[in-house]
Amino acid sequence: MAERMVGKQAPDFTMEAVLADKSFGKVSLQENIKNDKWTVLFFYPMDFTFLSNRNHSDV
Q1: What is the pLDDT along the chain (59 residues), one digit of tens a residue?
Q2: Is the pTM of this model over 0.70?
Q3: Gene3D superfamilies, alphabetically (predicted)?
């Protein structure tokens, strides 16, 4: 199991994402911080299970 990082600074990352205009593009945590953009890091178990998909629609 990975170490819990509650209260610690998140490591930088760059990844593919669906953007506001529904296109795909790269996003970077450091770029969002630099440009003063809000960022929500959302972690959950059991990716793509019935239960997790149902709960994510509430977020």
Answers
A1: 567 777 888 889 999 988 889 999 999 999 999 999 888 877 666 666 665 555 555 65
A2: no
A3: Glutaredoxin (3.40.30.10)
Rounded to the nearest angstrom, the gap between the alpha carbon of residue 42 and the centroid of all alpha carbons in its chain is 5
The pLDDT score that the predictor gives to residue 10 is 85
Name beta bridge partners: 27: 15
User: Can you read off the two tokens belonging to residue 20?
Assistant: 């506001």
Q: Domains of the chain: which residue ranges?
A: 14-56
User: What per-residue string of b and e applies to 7-35 under the rule 16 or more CB within 10 Å gives b?
Assistant: eeeeeeeeeeeeeeeeeeeeeebeeeeee
Integer-rounded Cα Rg, in Å, for the chain is 14
**Which tokens hold the place of 53?**
């998909």
